[in-house]
Amino acid sequence: MNSDTHLDGNSIGSLLQDLFGREMTDQRACCDACGAINPLATARVYVDAPGHVVRCAICGTVVLVAVTVPTGVRISFQALRWVELAP
Ligand SMILES: [Zn+2]
């Protein structure tokens, strides 16, 4: 945990693992807004919103939103330019 208001990207590790089928918090991703490239673990995760809101640790842009709906978990990649799956 980084502060009282947000968690780090490790807090969505199981969600990302369900989505990609592998550990993802150590994988790099690029913010579409500022171009910063960082491991997903460095992202800021806000859980006091409806669902999980993931923001770029550098510029604060919302890069991913995950919301539980009656039919499952709905994930929006709002501003992720890319996610790298390193071997
Ligand atoms: Zn950014």
Provide an overview of this structure.
- The protein has 87 residues and is mainly beta.
- The strands form two sheets. It has a five-stranded antiparallel sheet with strand order 1-4-5-6-7, with no helix packed on it. A three-stranded antiparallel sheet has the order 3-2-8, with no helix packed on it.
- The chain has one helix and eight strands; from the N terminus they run E-H-E-E-E-E-E-E-E.
- The chain is globular and about 35 Å long.
- The protein has one domain.
- The protein is 9% helix and 38% strand.
- The termini are far apart.
- The structure holds zinc ion.
- Zinc ion binds next to loops.
Walk me through the topology:
Layout lengths: L6 E2 L4 H8 L7 E4 L5 E3 L4 E3 L5 E4 L6 E8 L2 E5 L3 E4 L4
Antiparallel strand pairs: 1-4, 2-3, 2-8, 4-5, 5-6, 6-7
The structure holds zinc ion.
Please state the oligomeric state of the protein chains shown: single chain
Proportion in β-strands = 35-45%
Count of discrete alpha- or pi-helical segments spanning 4 or more residues: 1
Helix content estimate: under 10%
Structural class: mainly beta
Count of DSSP strands: 8
Radius of gyration: 12 Å
Shape: globular
Would you kindly provide a brief summary of this structure?
This protein has 87 residues and is mostly beta strands.
Question: Which features would summarize this protein structure in a list?
Answer:
three-stranded antiparallel beta sheet, binds zinc ion, 87 residues, mainly beta, globular
